[in-house]
C-alpha cells in the first residue's frame, strides 16, 4: 500500500541543547505543505589514471543535511518557532528581533498510518523567502541546515499526532501598510522579501558530518511593487531613499503579526509596462540596514498584535 502525501504529518521540537532532542519534548505539529531535502553524502572519484578510463575507487566527501519547509503564513505556534529560528532570536514579550542566538529544533516526519519516522536534528533556519501576492495566501519557504538525520519505528516520547485544524492563512487582503518608505497611501501590489543568515556548516577531522554552524552576514532584501499613481512613487527612489517598511498581517485581533524593517534602503525603481491591459506598477528593490537609533536590529517581528 502506498502512503499518500495527504497522510504525512510533520512536527518540530525545540532543542535546548543543539542536536539533542528532549526526552519529553514540547511537540508542535506544523501545517507544512511540503518538506524537501535529504542528506547529501557525495561520493568523490579517487584520483587514479586507468587505461580503461573508468572510476576505480570512490571516497565520501563532506556531508550536509539541507531541508526546506514550504507553507502558507498563518498564526501558528509551530510557525513562530520557525520564525524565531530564522531571526536567530528568542521571543520576548511577543517580540523577536534579528540577532545571533541560534534557536535549534528537531524536525520529525511521520509517513502514512505506519510507524515510520524520519528525524532531522540540530536544525536551524538559515533563510526564509516570503512572498505576498494579490488573491493568494502569503507563502513562506524556509531553508534549513541541520547536523544529523535518523530513522525510527516509534514516535518521540510524549508526542501526540492529533490532526491539527491549521490556522486560516493570511492574504494581502489582511494586510495594513503602516509605512512604505513614506509613500502617501501606497497601493501595494506585491511584496517579496528574503531573510538570509548566510550560515555555513563546520567540520573537523574525525567525521564527514558537520558538528556546528557559523553565522555569516545578515541579508534582508527583496522587492515591493506599487500601483503607479503618482510620479513621486518613481522619482523618490531614483537616487535611493531610506525609510521604514512597516506591515501588519492577519485577520483576527491578537492573532496578527507586525513586520518592521526600521531602516531600509529603497532603490532602482522600475516602471513595469503591462501592455494594453492592466495597470502600470513600480517595482522597487529593498535592502534592510541595521537600525542603531531605536530598534537595534535590521528587522523586528511582533506577534499577538491587536
Largest sheet: 16 strands, antiparallel
Helix content: under 10%
Low-confidence stretches: none
Percent of residues in β-strands:
35-45%
Q: Secondary-structure element sequence? A: EEEEEEHEEEEEEEEEEHEEEE
The end-to-end span amounts to: 48 Å
Can you tell me about this structure?
- It is a single chain.
- By secondary structure, the protein is mostly beta strands.
- It has one domain.
- Helix content is 5%, strand content 43%.
- The chain has 2 helices and 20 strands.
- The strands form 3 sheets. The protein has a 16-stranded antiparallel beta sheet that branches. A two-stranded antiparallel sheet has the order 4-5.
- The longest helix is centred in the first third of the chain and has 11 residues.
- The chain is globular.
- The protein starts with 8 loop residues before the first strand and ends with a strand.
- The mean pLDDT is 94.
